[in-house]
Description:
32 helices; binds magnesium ion
Amino acid sequence: MTFFDAMQRLSRSSTSPLFIGGLELSHPDSAEFFFHQNADAIFFFNHLGEIIYFNEKLPAMLGYSTETLYEHFGVFNPPEQIDAVTAFFERALTGETVHYTAQGLHNDHYRLTLKITNMPILQDNRVIGVYGIARDITREKQLEEDVVQIRSQLELTEHIPELVVFHYDPSTRSIEHSASLMNYLGVSSDELGTLSREQLHNLIHPRDFDPLLFNMERLIDCEVEMFEQEVSVLNASNGYQLLRLKAFRRPENNELISVILYDLSEVNEARRQLTLEREQTREIYEALDAAISQIDPSTGRVLFHSQGFLQIFEELPEDLCLSQKWLFERIDERDHLAMKHFIQQLLSGKSGTIQYRLRFPDGRRKWIEDQQLPVFHLDGNIAYSNSIMHDITLQKEYEERLQQLALIDAITELPNRQLLTDTIEEWMKNDQSFSVLSVSFNRISEINNAFGHASGDQWLQATSRILSITKPEEVFLGHLGGDEYAMLVPSSYSDDITSCAEKLLALSANPILIEPYELFARISAGVSRFPGDSQDAIELLKHSYTALRRSRREDHSTFHHYASNLDIDYYRRYRLEQDLHYAIERNELFLEYQPKVDSWTGKIIGLEALIRWQHPEWGRIPPNDFIPLAEESSLHLAIGDWVIETACQAMNSWARAGSNLIPISVNVSPKRFLIPGFEHQIEQALLKYNLSPHLFELEITEAALIMEDPNTNRMLEHLSHLGVRIALDDFGKGYSSMVYLQRYPIDVVKIDRQFATHIADDAKAQAIVKSILYMASVFSLSVVAEGIETIRQLETFRALNCPNIQGYLFSRPVSTEIMQSYLLREILYPIEACALTSEGTPSFSIEGKIKMLTHHEMALDFDYSDIHAHQTDTRHLYFTTEVPLPLNTATFEVRLSEGLQLVSCTLTVIGFEHGQYIGAYTNTSEAELVLRFFQSIRPFI
Length: 941
Ligand code: C2E
Ligand code: MG
Ligand code: MG
């Protein structure tokens, strides 16, 4: 069975990965290779204990053929051991890793001594089988046992038959001996009896001869009762062999001397082997940095230790007993508890790893990682625990440094958002009030774009330095991101947070040096307070940032306190963000089309698709209000796709209605280019609606290109190659880097509307437009001027030789149907819209405030916004306001004041006509009061 098949059987065809000892078996092939390379026998049991897979070492070790090994483990165990082994197997099934030494039955009926490890195999956190490793240590065990046995033989020589024994009678000089001696020495019994001193001398190694003689004489002279000695004796094959000689007077016959010789060569070989192996292991252990030791966990006694052990502890107790007292004196107090748990766990037989700190008398500390693997007697008691220790001080230091880096911003070297949040949490614990002051310098993206990232970094360093220098010592300063910072201001300062913030805003008066420029910043700030605004660190930071965003909407340096009650505008953004998710499916989006014409003939040369959102409550939402919201989430993707699809569909319907088609352009969010496959999306839409790519144009702003993303370039090249045209929108509004024109396949430049506004009277605007036109001619680009509203503007552009125009003068953006009639007409005439503003400015107004009370019957707590009330009758109030209001679904409180007079009422907004909202009074008596209020100011109304 292959490993893969075996795993399939184990895991019952589930696709989840298998884990052995924390390692994922993700690649069956490489796992199989690993198993077969392994020096030990490796095998897998199913949960019943049947072997279902093994490497080739197992049959070799047990002497079975491969086919006969798929058996229960009981088959390979001596009967008396099965209960103990089953207990270990069951522990592995409960998720534990166990190590033990046991006997295995060889096919040839002898027993092997095996060192065994069992580990659980896990899938989906369930144990589905057991992984086993076995090493044959029979030979080591045998050698060890030999030594023990022979040692005891030395003490019980009489019982050992193979030894050479002879008896010597000094009075008769006769020798009674066994045949083995003669065989051994290669002399006949007669010869032995008459061995001369010289011959004896020749038989015994010269080194041993004199001591032997000396001892023997002392024994004969009764000076000693016995002696023992090692002697090298020349044997039959003419080689010296080391024998142990024991001579003593026979207890029953004091005259007689018995001499016993026994062969030491086997013992010596066993000793030599053991010593060699121990030496080899020791060499390896000594070479390792790790400290390896064997410890009796119940007493702490060190049974064995490598050199590295000393390097870690630098000293050892004299009795080699790592008692808990000794250990805990050296372990850092912070790790005592963990160590106690660890020892408990070890004593209960579980292996594990712990990291702890050692303290030394000179103040040094070391981080130690200790892995302990208990090894059991067959009776289930712990024999000893193998321990591997590493000095991980360096690794810990790196970790700490990395953690530092993760908490400190690399450029400003200030604590980052994470550390800020952590610190807020810490301050919160102290239960003292403090403020979070968020600050933005508002220029980082502009500087990055205009001068490059190196200058951007300089800006960050400069702004962070300014804050570090000016902040009081007790204030904690951190970096939020970009050129935005946050300060934690303790209560001593935060009581006067206003003057604190004002000092900060005053910094905007000083230029900041970014070689070689001096730049000024508009500073926006926001304040939230603990405990008033939130009890949660992240939320508190968010609130202060919300207040900062509010300040940023104003065009000067300012700060705001966080207020839980938002204003209507803020609320509207929030609601729109929610509703935008459903805008497509509720059919609230549609496109309008604005023609681009030849500036001389008025012939339509192209059209731009512009998205619209007709919201049921808030009315028509301009794209500049909701496209940025869409870009904050991934909604812009769905909306962008919808625009391309709808524009292509419109082209197809115009073609079918018989119009001559001219190129259509769509606007693309810069972020769209970051998603791969956009180019194929366009290709598919063109194919679906049978449109030539030459009739399709993408309008992108510089923001899309500023990112300098290689993908953007690849997509644009691909589309350009297809024939799709690329227009650079709002040219002149941003940084208008010529590099983009050179680097990207741009076909059209659209001159931003701001130039049209000033062109007729502004020589500088004319000069810029002139240079754009010149540059376009050099790069062979087509040009469209946007936002032409008046004949004068048209004439100026004509005079500058601008070929194409887009603007209200020729047409506002119009519906599909009107566009169709335009296309059939082909030519448009300039019509100056003189009534454009007349409806917008009523002649009379009273200043007031409006506040939303309920929306969809939900009570709200908002701030007031400004309104101008122009007219009233008994039922309606007519007013204008900058903030868009929802129709029919909300109630408002309105307050009007003039001098010392004041009046208030509640109303529902029911319509929007001629630039004015129409509010219906909820209460007739209030309506009357308002009417009288108006009449008191303008009695003739
Ligand atoms: P844009 O691409 O520069 O579009 C031209 C904008 O100028 C349009 O505003 C258009 O109605 C307006 N406009 C045209 N002629 C005149 C004029 O003579 N006077 C004045 N005052 N305005 C004129 P709109 O439709 O509000 O769109 C604003 C911006 O929203 C667009 O600027 C474009 O950047 C974005 N946008 C519009 N539709 C989409 C879209 O489908 N996707 C994306 N991503 N953005 C869009
Ligand atoms: Mg555009
Ligand atoms: Mg534009």
